[in-house]
UniProtKB/TrEMBL annotation:
It comes from Nicrophorus vespilloides (Boreal carrion beetle). The gene is LOC108561673. It holds the Pfam family PP4R3. It is found in: Nucleus. This is Serine/threonine-protein phosphatase 4 regulatory subunit 3 isoform X3. Residues 767-790 are annotated as: Disordered. Residues 145-635 form the Serine/threonine-protein phosphatase 4 regulatory subunit 3-like central domain. The keyword Nucleus applies. Keywords: Nucleus. InterPro entries: EVH1_PP4R3, P4R3-like_central_dom, PH-like_dom_sf, PP4R3-like. Its main location: nucleus.
Amino acid sequence: MTDTRRRVKLYALNADRQWDDRGTGHVSSAYVDRLKGISLLVRAESDGSLLLESKIQPDTAYQKQQDTLIVWSEGDNFDLALSFQEKAGCDEIWEKICQVQGKDPSVEITQDIVEESEDERFDDMSDSAPPIELPSCELSRLEDISELISNCLSSPMRKEKLAAAIESEGYIRKLLNLFHMCEDLENYEGLHHLYDIFKNIFLLNKNALFEVMFSDDVIFDVVGCLEYDPSCITRKKHREYLKQQAKFREAIPIRNTELLSKIHQTFRVQYIQDVVLPTPSVFEDNMLGTLNSFIFFNKVEIVSLVQEDEKFLTELFAMLTDVNTLDSKRRDLVLFLKEFCNYSQNLQPQAKETFYKTLTNLGILAALEITLAMDDQKTKTASIDILTYIVEYSPSFVREYTLQQSNNTHEDQILLNIVIEQMICDTDPELGGAVQLMGVLRILLDPENMLAQVNKSEKTDFLNFFYKHSVQILIAPLLENTAHGEPQKEDYQTVQLLGLILELLSFCVEHHTYHIKNCILNKDLLRRILVLMKSTHKFLVLCALRFMRKLIALKDEFYNRYIIKGNLFAPVVDAFVRNNGRYNLLDSAIIEMFEFIKLEDIKTLCSHVVENYGKSLDDIGYVQTFKTLKSRYDQHQDKLKDRDRNTLESICFSVPSILRNSRYRRDQRQLDEEEEMWFNEEDDFDDNETMVTSNTSDILSKKLDTDLDSIGKIIEKNTDTNGPKINNNSSQKATVLNNNANSGTALALPTTNTENKSALFKRSLVDYEGGDSDEEEEESGEVTKRARLS
């Protein structure tokens, strides 16, 4: 048998930059006397004639491409190429070339320094590489065909040439004829080769080939080829599944034959991708991009064809909302709509908006009100999926519809309340539907995606609606389960549901302001939630704690006062004490909450915790949180005491001012003397700090007596000179003078108003019981100026 390792095709680049086939032969390397060097010789396969005799020049740039191709230039504008049938033969000749030029055979080009024009020429050679010659399509050549296709996958250029050759020669249909022969003959070796061939044809990633393989008359034969995986002992029965088990249900008869054909094709191709083809490796994954695109554009075309058929959609929604429609028929309609919405995810944004507007105008939300409340689990699940698609794309559609319902629909029939009811009443032990609906509610309640326009405020309107008509439905299971100070139900499904409700309420606390605040304060919601701190399910305990932590994180004094007034740290501290220092998530979460209070220096909560729970927390020594909290509390108390003392001092210092007016001015020396006397008394006050409260009235009395006696002395001197006589007869008319320059209150009033004065002032002005200040003024020798009477 002829050695195929050295079997090559010789190509020459013509003037049009296209490769001409110069014949097939066998290559060798030998010393040629005439050329005086090692040369490449190619002799024709047919008659042995010499097709090529080329000396290996030491300065010629030889280029190895795709493991089976060697390209070089013979002079100007004359390029040659050898295309080897086998990689081993190419490697042998390449090693000989590198040996002559003194190069390492691992290189792909033998000359490092190449002029720019030569670089461009090599690029052109790559773009116009010689075409691939496919072996004849015979049973005996299946192994060669499989090896050829496999070798071409490593090179983009070779893949292009191979795909072009397969398409132009109608090679796929020829291979499928061999498949029928192998199945009839039970030639499993051939069938295994065909499996490899078609698997690799998929990896060529060519849409033109997919169009051929996925045509109605061919696709089942292609699937049949992929049933004979060499790694499996038995054949996989994919064709039986597609033809017999996979049933196409027409919810409404589809009259458009193009649409019907496209739906069938898309299902089958999706099945090939997901089930029939082996799981692609990391390197093969990107090779199926065109297959993904084929499916993608098929789905887009299906959506467009359905949308264009207005009669079809109108009939569909009419049947969906008709009360006489059977549940089984309604289930098929909902499942069709679900697939329809799933396909729409491939649309461009503008087309997707048109799609959802079309569904909304046709009444899809009104239909979902019916299907969400159905007992059939498949119908309900598909309805939840459809609602999720709509809300994820545009929650405003649902909000606007809900607000329109508020004026003319009973609360139980409003879509938003139906969603909440279905979340609460989910019968699935794992609450799969409830989790999905909670996600829907979260999107609807997220103010970040709410529109605010000049004449329309979606955020305000929708939140007002929710907290007025819907929140009571949401929290009803929570209030019911905590009605008697202990969790009433501890089964897994109930606590899972309560966890979802708490997660949604925590989201509301974080993103809503006065709406959720009013709800919490009016319904005493935090107290009821903290009942769950007694639950035996730790995740639910953590959910309740997380809700309280969200409130504290806001540092809102309304919430702080609510917590203090209700003594709502008690359940948390009790849970902390019951945990008994175990190193778990609950212990860390509670400590973190108190650490936050400490770091943020929330004084009201800090004081409340230390004063009410200090004894329970003082013994916690494995963290410094509570000791630091106590230290912060002590510092705060010291500051309060200092502030109170300063306040008392300022009050005492300002008392004399009530008796002074700008009508009399004292001598500056007299004021200095009295200030000195006042500060002397203040020193005594400071020295006896512990008796501040008990002695305050005495100090005030003494100071008042001192200042009032001074005023009395001034008035007496004025009377001796030219003022009227003042005696102890309280019924006698008198004029009371005020000489405090800093006072804004005038006491110069007619005697008829004397009854309105305090008894203290009457005693000071008339009785002169405090004569000490007169004596001190006389001893000091200071002269008091005469007051001017006006």
